[in-house]
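Z., the sequence and structure:
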Amino acid sequence: MEKIAPKNILFITLVSINKIEDRNLYADLIRCFVKKGHHVSIISPMERRMGKKTYEVNGEEYKIIKVRTPNIQKTNPFEKIIGIFAIDYLIKSAIKQRLVNDKYDIAIYSTPPITLVNTIKFLKDKYGLYTYLLLKDIFPQNAVDIGLMNKNGFFHKYFRKKEQVLYDFSDNIGCMSEANRKYVLNNNSEIQPNKVEVCPNCIEVNYSSQTYIDKNDFNTKHGIPLNARVFIYGGNLGKPQGIQFLIEILKSQILNQDVFFIIIGSGTEYAKLNTWVKAEKPQNVILKEYLPKSEYDKYVEIADVGLIFLDHRFTIPNYPSRLLSYMEYKKPVLIFSDKNTDIGSNAEARGYGVWSYSNDLENAIEKVNEIVIMPRHKIEEMGLIGHNYLKENYSVANTYEVIVRHLV
């Protein structure tokens, strides 16, 4: 690709970024932009539970505006809705107060939320800048799918209109997968097909230094059997993950000494899972609500297989970014999902995972058993295939090129 002159980039996300050295989906991509010589201004939320006012962090080639917002992540549906209503005004106000004299070439922003309509219109009117939407969340349909919103009710109509206007304001829409791209076009006939493309989730591969862990010592210390097949799930434990199906999987394996489950995460359904664990006291399950990333990574490193759960009711094709951390640590994946996403079919077709529908318990148990009896060399081979696929397809360099080719 032709080398482009440095651009001034405005990056808006609801993911918390405190410094660009952070390790997450967007901080990794931002570092890539900075390393390529661009200046990036980042708008990132700071939920009210932190007890701080909006503030600014300045670096040599970047600045971060931490905008105080209502609690939006891992909170009750009512507060989440209020926050989604308010976020557009709060971000637009922060830009006017702190960035109004700056000049930008491109605004990159992600869903959630889909309510940034006034902010994006303001940016296009003021700067005439190019706008790029990273579509990570198809809302409000995802809320309808899992029963959090009534189809064609007031909230659905309101947010659906916001979604359509945001799509219209966006010069390009980057989707997480091909199924994602097709869904957007099939359900939004007014969108020109050439503005919608695949721009996958990405990470800076091997950015984190992986230190050697003595698996025998670690497992013994944490009560993990040395000869069991260890499955790990890390991430949100909410409605989208279909936690009841996860519980059914755990129930089915409660007497199986050949498997061990590590579940680390938080969310609105954590209490439901925790209640079951406390009541049944399974000897082959570890449940932790939170761990520092450095500690969580140790559990991933000693695990054999990464788990991904998606509620079977989804009609939209989700593509959880949790997949990438498993692939980075050379772990094959076991995916329980709806039939509309292509995350499971992609994993099976490319040889780095196994997949089952998340409403077919009998088949899901068969898939668990398939992995339990799989030779270790086969597990390692699948993990390596996934790691190589990650480097070739889900690196920040690839996603960077997808975006900036529009600015050449």
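The CA atoms of residues 24 and 353 lie 23 Å apart. The chain has two domains: 8-199, 215-392.

Let me know what you think.
H.
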